[in-house]
Amino acid sequence: MNIDTPALVVDLDRLRSNVETMGRTVRSRGLRLRPHAKTHKCLEIAALQREAGADGLTVATLSEAEVFAAAGFTDLLVAYPLFPVGAKAERLRRLLDTAEVTVGVDNAAGATAVADAAAGRRVPVVIEVDSGQHRTGVGPSQVVRLAEHCHALGLDVSGVFTHGGHCYGSPEAPEEAASDEGDALAEAHDALREAGFDITLVSAGSTPTTGRPRPPQVTEERPGSYVFYDRQQLALGACAPEQVALSVAATVVSSGPDRFVVDAGSKALAMDRPSWLVGHGAVWSHAGATVSRLSEHHGVVESGPGAPAVGEVVFVTPNHACNVVNLFDEYVIVQAGDVVDRWRVAARGRNV
């Protein structure tokens, strides 16, 4: 494989299999699938997800929404508590004119800013529920008060959503986090229904919790990392090794008796490292080889005997695919070991 390194490499067959399998899994349970596009930021991958039954996309920012809306993906959920003022308010208005955009809210001030920015345009909102990560979201007992505030502003309260991000706390965490997601959403749903809100969207989501039991109130799943998986997902039991579709190709630039150095550092592999996962990536072709240290452009791999020679290209499975993707301009698409295409990371750097 003749490619310049470091390079972001995707195995096309594994990618397609992951996308199709998730589509079948979610649909078989009678749920909608709204995958989170912040993982891949790529129009071609979003198209594969739509072909596999995705009902829309989840995005993290207005600028991500703008990229996908311009390409014809017009059913979008911004799963983030926006505060659109100034130029961002004008951008939200333009987006609402071209796409069906649902906005996440978790506080009265943000909801008021969304309503003011909309300037009379219809804006569906979903209230974020804190199911245990304790980052954003309100408790299930608080959703009715916030929903009533949104309604008074003229916003259309469509439902509730949550992200059980505490599923990443340890390899044992996903099962409990999935239960927490379901319990919080069911309580919030029932409270809103009792208060007279005709909600239709009850959305859970993360790759490690999707596929686990859900209460009947849940209508939708929002996994993201499943398109590629990564070393973290593998350690959490969310996938098998043969499902990992993304790697960083790197060239060995220095080698010693028990380690080697590759040309992929923190600017290619990112710095994500959960406390329960050793190192910053793995080189599966060399048993036990782990990226132990990162400089900006150096990755030090502890390998033991049998280190590869200088000039050899190795493939590093990163800890967390999402942040690694945002460091590259394009994917190198491979099939059966051959480069077959290159896809742009179209929403790279779209953080505002």
Structure in words:
The protein is α/β, with parallel strands linked by helices and 352 residues long. The protein is 29% helix and 24% strand. It has ten helices and 17 strands. An eight-stranded parallel sheet has the order 2-9-8-7-6-5-4-3. Strands 10-11-14-13-12-15 form a six-stranded antiparallel barrel. The two termini are 36 Å apart. The mean pLDDT is 96.
List the helices and strands and how they pair.
Blueprint: E1 7-11, H1 12-28, E2 32-33, H2 43-51, E3 57-59, H3 62-70, E4 75-81, H4 87-96, E5 100-105, H5 108-118, E6 124-128, H6 143-152, E7 156-161, H7 173-194, E8 201-204, E9 220-221, H8 231-235, E10 246-255, E11 259-262, H9 266-269, E12 281-283, E13 289-294, E14 299-302, E15 313-318, H10 321-325, E16 330-335, E17 338-344
Parallel strand pairs: 1-16, 2-9, 3-4, 4-5, 5-6, 6-7, 7-8, 8-9
Antiparallel strand pairs: 1-10, 10-11, 10-15, 11-14, 12-13, 12-15, 13-14, 16-17
* Strand-pairing-aware structural class: alpha/beta
Widest beta sheet: strand line-up? 2-9-8-7-6-5-4-3
| Share of β-strand residues | 15-25%
Write the element-wise H/E pattern from the N-terminal end onward: EHEHEHEHEHEHEHEEHEEHEEEEHEE
* Parts with pLDDT < 50 across at least 5 consecutive residues: none
Helix fraction, binned, reads 25-40%
Shape: elongated
What Rg is obtained from the alpha carbons, in whole angstroms? 21 Å
Largest sheet: 8 strands, parallel
